[in-house]
Amino acid sequence: MPRVLLIEDDPSIREGVALGLRRRGHDVRSADTGEEGLALMGTFRPELILLDLMLPGINGVQVCHRIRETSEVPIIMLTARGDDFDIVIGLEAGADDYIVKPARTEVIEARIKAVLRRLIDPAGNRPGVESHGELAIDRAGLTVAKNGERVPLAPSEIKLLLHLSASPEQVFSRQQLLEYVWDHSYHADARLVDACVRRLRHKVEDPAGSPRYIQTVRGFGYRFGPL
Questions:
Q1: Which of 1, 28, 94, 197 is 20 to 30 A from 221, comparing alpha carbons?
Q2: Which residues does residue 98 pair with via DSSP β-bridges, in sequence order?
Q3: How many Cα atoms are found within 13 Å in the side-chain-facing hemisphere of 173?
Q4: At what angle do helices 84-92 and 60-68 cross, to 10 degrees?
């Protein structure tokens, strides 16, 4: 089972979540501040992080930014409110998903599995590296390069790019992307898609021009290309 770093300042939630995940076989390390969580990153080397949004000192958004400077580890943001503003800020900072507290351990475990599920090539067997203009997409290695330089992408970002680029010019609705990338089937999470698209564009598009790769089809969703 994957190693989980839990950064949560509420002791009852922290202890309850950690206990529930350990009972399911996870190796869990806990921190009650952002500073302590960042320190554990180097020694514990987690495979997934559960990160509270509202932390004393360095808050969850700042922690997320710091982690994303050096790591692509999956991050699930924990928020005490279903407030759109808080959630979007967390997603824009680089989180792959979010959970509104309080949440049952089964729900948290399901989200962990969804985020960590192995990426499946959505186009079937397409070996080798694909070239799309300045982008080189290695489906087998799950890596992306732009102009020959590796582009660090979070799990949700690479899976979204793989899915869209597998069918150039095909329009996918936000709901279709939610179900494929995040395994979510409820419409309220459309902001997951929009936030991930914005992060992906920031990394692979020319900031001075219009989106070339991830294009918006107004009223419908997104498509890849044409180039």
A1: 94
A2: 77
A3: 9
A4: 20
Length of the chain: 227
Whole-angstrom distance, CA of residue 98 vs CA of residue 79? 7
What six digits make up the tokens of 197?
Answer: 């698209």
How far is residue 189's CA from residue 211's CA, in Å, rounded to a whole number?
Answer: 23
* Number of other CB atoms surrounding residue 10 within 10 Å: 17
Q: What is the pTM of this model?
A: 0.67
Dist. CA 65–CA 222, nearest whole Å: 26
The per-residue pLDDT for range 112-164, each reduced to its tens digit, is 887 776 444 444 444 467 888 888 888 877 889 998 889 988 888 988 998 89
Closest CA to 93 of 49, 56, 61: 61
Amino acid at 64: C
